[in-house]
Design goal:
signal, Protein Transport Mog1p, Chain A, Lipoprotein, four-stranded antiparallel beta sheet, 7 helices, single chain
Length: about 240
């Protein structure tokens, strides 16, 4: 894959998952605190990695998580169940399942102010010409008074104007929804949630996006993809 195509692929991934969420939610905290927080340089580094790491957005989609050096550093247990490993964020704030063929390129991981962690992992279903992107944003502490603002901004970011479904599970308050949209290569599925710890001011946002790979027939529907989207969401645990 040539360099132009690798960079184009990266840009497409970043546009799909909406990497502006971090900036908008950081502004909310600045408004509440009455002061401006300096953005960690690691966010900019996400787009400034070397060419070798850019391969992670292209050819390395076909590699297993345990074979990819950066992805492997997140794994705390392999083969916890068929097709899945257990991963933990670098701030030790959350754990969840990750598909065995998921890859986390180092350029799509960032930690800001040792308090906010963002990561994106991607995996494929080649036989059905489908590709999936999962974006997570973990907050080690958030101001309780802006909780509703976080939820409102998140809905804007994912392009949803309805109401969340609410439930409690795994010591979490869970606000989630899903919808389908049209993309250049077919339907785009979006399944998203905001999870708040019931006992501490920790939170994590979750976005699961399914798209069709170009160049072939592909069918996506909420019913088909909800099983995987919900399996990953319900596997999330916020840690002490």
């Amino acid at each position: 894959m040539n360099k132009w195509l690798r960079i184009s692929t990266l840009c497409a991934v970043l546009l799909i998952v909406g990497c502006n969420t971090a900036n908008n939610q950081q502004e909310l905290e600045e408004e509440v605190n009455g002061e401006e927080t300096q953005e960690d340089s690691s966010t900019e580094q996400m787009l400034e990695d070397d060419e070798a790491e850019q391969e992670g957005v292209g050819n390395e989609y076909d590699r297993l998580a345990v074979e990819h050096e950066f992805t492997k550093s997140f794994l705390v247990e392999s083969d916890v169940e068929p097709g899945f490993h257990q991963m933990r964020g670098k701030l030790d704030g959350f754990e969840m399942l990750i598909p065995e063929n998921a890859i986390i390129p180092s350029m799509l991981h960032a930690i800001e102010n040792n308090a906010i962690e963002t990561l994106i992992f991607t995996f494929n279903n080649h036989s059905e010409k489908k590709q999936y992107h999962v974006k997570l944003m973990y907050y080690s502490k958030y101001p309780e008074e802006v909780k509703q603002n976080y939820l409102n901004v998140f809905k804007d970011e994912v392009g949803f104007d309805g109401e969340y479904q609410y439930e409690e599970a795994n010591d979490l308050e869970m606000y989630h929804e899903s919808y389908e949209d049209d993309g250049d290569n077919g339907p785009v599925l979006k399944y998203f949630s905001y999870l708040f710890s019931k006992h501490r001011n920790q939170a994590i946002s979750y976005e699961f996006i399914g798209v069709c790979q170009g160049g072939g027939e592909c069918s996506l529907s909420l019913e088909e993809e909800a099983e995987m989207a919900e399996k990953l969401m319900y596997s999330i645990r916020l840690l002490d």
